[in-house]
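Supplementary Methods, section 5.1.

A reviewer requested that the exact input to the structure prediction be made available. We therefore reproduce it here, unchanged from the version used in the analyses.
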Amino acid sequence: MSAPAALRPYVITRGRARAAYGIALEALLTTRQAPRPLHLNPEERTLLDLCARPTALAETAARLGLPLGLTRVLASDLVVQGLLTVSESVPPEVRLLRDVLAGLRRMT
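The structure derived from this sequence is encoded token-by-token as follows.
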């Protein structure tokens, strides 16, 4: 990786490698209807555009063409600023999983 390519993620996240707010890969990100500050970098503006409809963090990273960790830091910043909301997925209940497993077994 050349020096400029290695430096770019560092610059985009303003030197941070960890997100202030933990966001799961499958969490859905949605842009809030709020005025956008002028200080947003191009990647943050694009992330907000992508999340006009609920979009998973992993999908957002893929569409941005950025590493997942970098996208998580950017999304976290936008959550802290009140520009993005996070909907964490709720794990399925054990009973539901057992019912699905029983149904699959009946099919064989």
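The mean pLDDT is 82. These observations are discussed further in the main text.
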